[in-house]
Write a sequence for this structure.
């Protein structure tokens, strides 16, 4: 695991235990509370982070969406507030066993089912710390994003990713709207779970890719990896 400071108040913990991906969780330490964005693959992955936490402050856990590599470490935070979209709680619950069975080899430690215990529809704002959580459906229907108003850092979960995003919700026009909405934040820094240094350029190129997908345009990619993901995206949208 790699530990890196990415802003005055944020530490990024990056794991390389999943092939082909680097996956990061983010600890934002503010005046009133700590905010941990995602919990990776289990309690084993969370140990180093917990050891580093200032225990005098409450730690609020945030799940960007229901995917296994973002929620399995929730059980390290029993008794804490875990926040996600209403649909994140629902999908994490319904698909818990299925996700465990499909990705058993990535389980890190004794994973127990622990769902978000605070859910919302559109927005939650922690005013004292300038932390805004907002609904941003795209990669999945339950995706949320986090904006740090003090430092202008935007955390986008899996909604942006280089070299290509995974489209796992067929509502691509909503995905485009979410990305267009990101531009309004004028973020100084944009970070995703699997790509740490994004720019507005990545938002524009992802919008353009999604529009091509919707229009059924033929898109060519150089690498085998991007071609495979693109095919999965096509299958997701045109499955009916
Ligand atoms: Zn995901």
């Amino acid at each position: 695991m790699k530990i890196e400071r990415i802003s005055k108040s944020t530490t990024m913990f990056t794991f390389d235990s999943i092939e082909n991906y680097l996956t990061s969780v983010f600890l934002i330490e503010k005046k009133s509370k700590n905010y941990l964005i995602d919990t990776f693959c289990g309690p084993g992955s969370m140990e180093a982070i917990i050891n580093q936490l200032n225990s005098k402050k409450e730690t609020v856990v945030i799940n960007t969406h229901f995917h296994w590599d973002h929620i399995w470490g929730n059980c390290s935070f029993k008794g804490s507030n875990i926040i996600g979209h209403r649909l994140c709680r629902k999908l994490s619950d319904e698909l818990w066993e299925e996700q465990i069975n499909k990705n058993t080899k990535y389980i890190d430690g004794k994973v127990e089912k622990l769902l978000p215990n605070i859910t919302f529809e559109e927005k939650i704002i922690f005013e004292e710390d300038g932390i805004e959580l907002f609904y941003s459906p795209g990669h999945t229907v339950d995706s949320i994003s986090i904006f740090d108003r003090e430092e202008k850092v935007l955390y986008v979960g899996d909604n942006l990713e280089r070299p290509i995003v995974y489209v796992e919700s067929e509502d691509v026009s909503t995905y485009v709207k979410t990305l267009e909405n990101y531009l309004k934040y004028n973020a100084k820094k944009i970070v995703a779970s699997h790509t740490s240094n994004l720019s507005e350029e990545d938002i524009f190129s992802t919008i353009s890719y999604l529009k091509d997908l919707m229009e059924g345009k033929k898109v060519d990619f150089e690498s085998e990896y991007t071609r495979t993901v693109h095919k999965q995206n096509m299958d997701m949208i045109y499955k009916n």
In short: The longest strand covers residues 23-29.
